[in-house]
Amino acid sequence: MRYLSLLFLLALCLSACQVEQDKSTTEAKAIQVNHAPLKAKQVIDRIKEQVTCEWAAKTVDTFKEGNEESPVTGIASTFLATYDVLKRAHAAGLNMVITHEPTYYNHLDETAFFEEDPVFQKKRDFIRDNNMIVFRFHDHWHRTQPDGISLGMKERLGWTDYEIRPNDLIFKLPTQSLQALADYLQERFQATSVRVVGPKDMEISKVGFSMGSPGSRAQIGILRMEEVEVLVGGETLEWETVEYVRDAQAQGRKKALILLGHANSEEAGMAYCAEWLKGFISEVPVQFIPAGDPFWTPAAPK
Question: Is residue 217 classed exposed, middle or buried when 0-12, 13-18 and 19+ CB atoms within 10 A define those classes?
Fold first, then answer.
């Protein structure tokens, strides 16, 4: 009887050891999987899952440099992947740059024209020599709902509480002069190149906002609205929207235009993008790196 009891205890011990061994093996496998390096393609796959729109086959949102299978050490979100931004990202250990606008000086990032250009070469070589990855995130950041750039810009403008309808970027502000609004925007953005079309003392309260450079038809379409007296925008062709506003004023219509510059009118949207990315990417650091306003303006002549 004692012999049978000993055999039973031995069997129990062996069974418990096997369970612990299986558990340890499973945990070891789980740890190995969890510590696999995050690849650039995985980052973009997660972005595709998070945006509310279908991912278009024809888009500028593609890898501009780097291998999609490369491991990611950190992510920089920026309005423009300038040479300076790339250097700062590299110094911070962020080898993947997600940029809103082109890297190589044209909308499609076509490089044939620049192949012998020393500025292009130095920038391209810096990216490649440091194993960096550049991905453009433009079309789908605008198409997702709400528009990612507009969310960041409304916060930056400080006008969230004044929007007439959700996400249409038309605001009813306290009545003020055109000069006062321009001064506010210049201070708010620390901008050195704000330009204004319209009388300084014109009283306004109804403001439309247009990001970046959507084209004169889009800008004029906003100006046609009864609930818009002033359009605050990024940039425009000067012989189009600017002259439309001048003619409207000459006809006695209450219309004005304030141009912040393209960067000032969108960059806050990429600051918001960094926070958005942190919501589903935790394996590596994510940081916003501003490109800044490239312009400055000499003192006005007396």
Answer: exposed
Domains 40-145 and 148-259 share a fold: yes
pTM of the model: 0.86
Q: Is the dihedral of CA 222, 142, 102, 154 positive or negative?
A: positive
CA angle 264, 100, 279 (to 5 degrees): 100
199: which 2 tokens? 């009388």
The yes-or-no verdict on residue 18 having pLDDT over 60 is: no
**C-alpha separations of 95 from 35, 109, 260 in Å:** 18, 20, 31
Which region holds residue 197: left if phi is over 0, alpha if psi is between -120 and 50, else beta?
Answer: beta
Helices vs strands, H then E, count in the chain: 10, 10
pLDDT per residue as tens digits for the range 241-297: 999 999 999 999 999 999 999 999 999 999 999 999 999 999 999 999 999 999 988
Nearest CA-CA partner of 161 in 153, 152, 151, 172: 172
**Can you state the angle between helices 118-129 and 83-91, rounded to 10 degrees?**
20
**Domain residue extents for the chain:** 40-145, 148-259
What average pLDDT does the structure give for the chain? Answer: 90
Q: Identify the three-state secondary structure at position 291.
A: coil
For residue 30, pLDDT over 90 is answered with no
Rounded-to-integer distance, Cα 75 and Cα 96, Å: 5
Q: Which CATH architecture has domain 40-145?
A: 3-Layer(aba) Sandwich (3.40)
Question: Which residues, including other chains, have CB under 8 Å from residue 172's CB and lie 6 or more apart?
Answer: 162, 164, 205, 206, 207, 227
148-259 belongs to which homologous superfamily? NIF3 (NGG1p interacting factor 3)-like (3.40.1390.30)
